[in-house]
């Protein structure tokens, strides 16, 4: 079969769904790979490098989509791209079916088979190698620290120099899931003093192992909402948490927020008052900006200065590290393709008896199969 990789059309999107190193492996699995000309330019993958790895280059999107049995994408397709998808074709991409019912209908009308990488049952240990949410969150956490360091007027590490003594920066991370843990590790490696908080107390050891200090909220309440995710906390807990965060805001130089609750708006953890109380020159990176933000003053997609504090609400952090994120995403899709093509003959079998594949498959030959029943074994 032919795997096609179009250029991403979403404004500002620099990632691409496969990279030359992975093309070689897809070809070894028996597929022909066609890449749209220029698809990898923004991720430092030229047409020539794809060709050298065994891909063919299509001059334009229409040719690419028309030739492809299976399309690999990063962002879900827009209406025009759905129009270009072959009747009965297969699409592997981020889809977010709950948020995009219209797109689901359009794809179903095309009799497509759609594997939504965001719908992977992440709790299956076997699924980890395909978990693009985790790879992208890790990159975002790293990049959030780099953005903070770039906007901050001082060193992260403490230094004794002939020109004077510099204290280390203090960084507070709200939410220690995948992105938060990556941010903790990165900030600690840069030499900052790192503190973190999460409503799920079970992450305390992970925070410590990465060089951070876990700061507890002085209120007993279990924060796990099931499946490793958080729940909405009681008003009493939220009040105690606000008091602790208000104290941290006065002390630290950088706050990075990552707190999310599945299916709910992001919890508002940093109030305008807390921002006002921070030292001038402090930086907040709000990684929850797209879901409404953890900080009251965040403007999604923007970096703004309010009360002397830079508040960064970029919603394209993985795309800002396009080569790295494209490479990890391409590897996640390669692992998925290996699962779909155990026979290594360039043919795929979307096996609905397989828990991981079942979870990902949101449309099968035009029939909407989302949401999947929970997987049987972890
Ligand atoms: P997420 O992006 O949904 O949320 C980020 C973090 O914010 C979470 O740690 C959450 O507990 C925290 N949070 C939510 N509300 C908060 C609040 N009010 N105050 C402070 N913190 C708050 O989470 P994620 O990064 O996708 O990870 C969620 C869980 O899934 C983790 O336990 C992770 O280890 C797990 N996970 C497991 C696998 C696997 O088993 N293969 C893969 C990926 C993730």
Keywords:
378 residues; alpha/beta; 8-stranded mixed beta sheet; 7-stranded mixed beta sheet; 33% helix; binds nicotinamide-adenine-dinucleotide
Task: Describe the structure in your own words.
The protein has 378 residues and is of the alpha/beta class. It is built from 12 helices and 19 strands. The strands form 4 sheets. It has an 8-stranded mixed sheet, sandwiched between helices. Strands 11-10-9-14-15-17-16 form a 7-stranded mixed sheet, with helices on both faces. A two-stranded antiparallel sheet has the order 7-8. Helix 1 packs parallel to helix 11. The longest helix is centred in the middle third of the chain and has 20 residues, at 132-151. It binds nicotinamide-adenine-dinucleotide (NAD). Nicotinamide-adenine-dinucleotide (NAD) binds next to helix 6, helix 7 and strand 13.
Brief rundown of the structure:
This protein has helices at residues 20-28, 47-52, 61-67, 79-84, 101-109, 132-151, 178-189, 204-209, 235-251, 272-277, 322-340, 355-360; strands spanning 2-5, 32-36, 56-58, 70-72, 90-93, 113-116, 159-161, 164-166, 170-174, 193-197, 213-214, 224-226, 229-230, 254-257, 283-286, 303-306, 309-312, 361-364, 367-368. The chain has 378 residues and is an alpha/beta fold.
């Amino acid at each position: 079969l032919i795997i096609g990789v179009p250029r991403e059309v979403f404004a500002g999107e620099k990632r691409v769904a496969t990279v030359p190193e992975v093309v070689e492996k897809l070809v070894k699995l028996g597929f022909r790979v066609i890449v749209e000309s220029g698809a990898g330019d923004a991720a430092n993958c030229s047409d020539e490098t794809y060709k050298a790895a065994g891909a063919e280059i299509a001059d334009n999107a229409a040719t690419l989509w028309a030739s492809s049995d299976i399309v690999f994408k990063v962002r879900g397709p827009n209406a025009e791209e759905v129009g270009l998808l072959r009747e009965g074709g297969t699409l592997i991409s981020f889809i977010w079916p709950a948020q995009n019912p219209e797109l689901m209908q359009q794809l179903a009308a095309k009799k497509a088979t759609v594997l939504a990488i965001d719908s992977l049952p992440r709790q299956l240990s076997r699924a980890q190698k395909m978990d693009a949410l985790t790879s992208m969150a890790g990159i975002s956490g790293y990049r959030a620290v780099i953005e903070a360091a770039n906007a901050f007027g001082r060193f992260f590490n403490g230094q004794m120099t002939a020109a004077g003594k510099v204290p280390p920066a203090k960084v507070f991370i709200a939410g220690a899931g995948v992105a938060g843990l990556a941010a903790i590790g990165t900030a600690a490696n840069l030499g900052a003093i790192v503190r973190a908080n999460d409503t799920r107390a079970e992450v305390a050891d992970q925070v410590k192992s990465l060089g951070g200090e876990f700061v507890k909220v002085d209120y007993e309440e279990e924060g796990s909402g099931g499946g490793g995710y958080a729940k909405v906390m009681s008003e009493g807990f939220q009040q105690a948490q606000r008091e602790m965060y208000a104290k941290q805001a006065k002390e630290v130089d950088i706050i990075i927020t990552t707190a999310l609750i599945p299916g709910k708006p992001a919890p508002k953890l940093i109030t305008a008052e807390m921002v006002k109380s921070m030292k001038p020159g402090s930086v907040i990176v709000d990684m929850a900006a797209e879901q409404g933000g953890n900080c009251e003053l965040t403007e999604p997609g923007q970096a703004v200065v309010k009360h002397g504090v830079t508040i960064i609400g970029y919603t394209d952090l993985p795309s800002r590290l396009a080569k790295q994120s494209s490479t990890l995403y391409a590897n996640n899709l390669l692992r998925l393709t290996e699962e779909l093509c155990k026979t290594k003959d360039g043919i795929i079998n979307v096996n609905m008896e397989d828990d991981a594949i079942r979870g990902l498959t949101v449309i099968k030959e035009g029939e909407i199969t989302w949401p999947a029943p929970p997987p049987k074994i972890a």
